[in-house]
């Protein structure tokens, strides 16, 4: 596999398409929000005409009412990657969701099996009591699971009780080092250029009709989908409780903050190869990545012989 990652607005989608055209590969989404349906503009999914340039998988495939996490993403990706490789094609994993990517490349530690006696005890409790017990031992559980879903609450309480650890810790415990058959590339852009691209993309979203896209969303969204950057600001602007200028400024600021967090995360992933994308075209960057990928494959084959 080839993994292409980097901060939001660093140009991953265009570069992935160029790589796919050079290699005959197929692109697999590794972005927590681009997985969702009905949000193509807000989440900066590749445009339909761009998707026609190379096969794309998992984009816009998850209903907005569904919760998403790293474990579910891994299952989705592992469902389509073997199908791509079975046709002799290169899977190009593309996105900036660090936890999702690491779950795929390193594997998540298995969660504990259910305990029949504990499950019987929890089955007898009303939903309010389940939630109260969970929050008593894991006060931050609401940040990672839907507390309105009794099944999720019960499983989280079971995990926390059996392990003595919060659910979030269980979901971010990795099983091993990176997969041996993956080459990973991280796109770096100078901050000034990256921030300018973020600001420009926000205006492009408005021109593309993102306000109408948000206005057409159903009232009920999953907790995960509600975290999409710009959603709350645009809802407030549509409702008249925030000016459009203020909404745009907030979206740009929150996106820049997200890009900074992404940079912090990926700087720790020293097994990835950093590619300087500043001031360069998607085609130029794609050609460099393809050369590096082919060199790595050739070196690996030579070492085995």
Brief overview:
The protein is α/β, with parallel strands linked by helices and 305 residues long.
Question: How would you describe what is shown here?
Answer:
This protein has 13 helices and 6 strands. By secondary structure, it is an alpha/beta fold. The chain has a 6-stranded parallel sheet with strand order 3-2-4-1-5-6. Helix 2 (48-51) links the parallel strand 2 and strand 3. Helix 6 (127-137) runs parallel beside helix 7, helix 9 crosses helix 12 (244-267) and helix 11 packs antiparallel against helix 12 (244-267). The protein is globular. The protein starts with a strand and ends with a helix. 35% of the residues are buried.
Rounded to an integer, what's the Rg over CA atoms? 21 Å
Termini gap: 21 Å
Task: Please report the total strand number as a whole number.
Answer: 6
Approximately how much helix is present in the residues?
40-55%
Strand arrangement across the biggest beta sheet: 3-2-4-1-5-6
How much strand content do the residues show? 5-15%
Continuous helix count: 13
Structural class: alpha/beta
Gross geometry: globular
Mean pLDDT across every amino acid position: 92
Question: What pattern of helices and strands is seen along the backbone?
Answer: EHEHEHEHHHHHEHHHHEH
